[in-house]
Predict the structure.
Amino acid sequence: MNRKPRIVVLISGSGSNLQAIMDACASEQIEGSVVGVISNKADAYGLTRAGNAGIETKTLSHKAFSSREEFDAQLAEEVDAFDPDYIVLAGFMRILTDQFVQRYLGKMVNIHPSLLPKYKGLHTHQRAIDAGDSTHGASVHFVTPALDDGPVLVQGAVSIDADDDADSLQHKVHKIEHIIYPVAMQWLCSGKVKMANGRVYLNNELLPIEGKMYDVN
């Protein structure tokens, strides 16, 4: 019997996307299993979430290392110890070195709170409001060395209403994230999606640079 794809999740905070992925694995919406959770912060609530689900956790503080390269080298060892098929960044607040990213190219994904390629980086919700956009959302993308620049698998959109501020918009986007991240992970674990030549293919069909827009309604 073929084993289920093994997922390692890297976190720094509350782990709400981790919870969504763990729940989807438990309900078999995702044909895979979260086998390990690693945080660079010992007080990250996501570690409690993982522990409650019986998933092994590890803490690796970046403050214990003199360079980003040394931290990433040790992080890679911790990741590899779980023998993962996929690495998921879920609120992992560290910029990873090119060497680390290349090690897991095509196997590591991230979720970003904007409709990429719009608004790479921080403060995406306020930037969308300031630009007068009518829609905003989140994108799941493969991780490449350039920040928030990897090819997109899937996006989910929300409306920006007249009374929205950055906080209310963030709340809307979080709900979308918890839907589309499990979708993306199921595509990966079932073999429906892959990255080749810097682009994403779903069921062997080339996706646009924005990925597939998922109907979250």
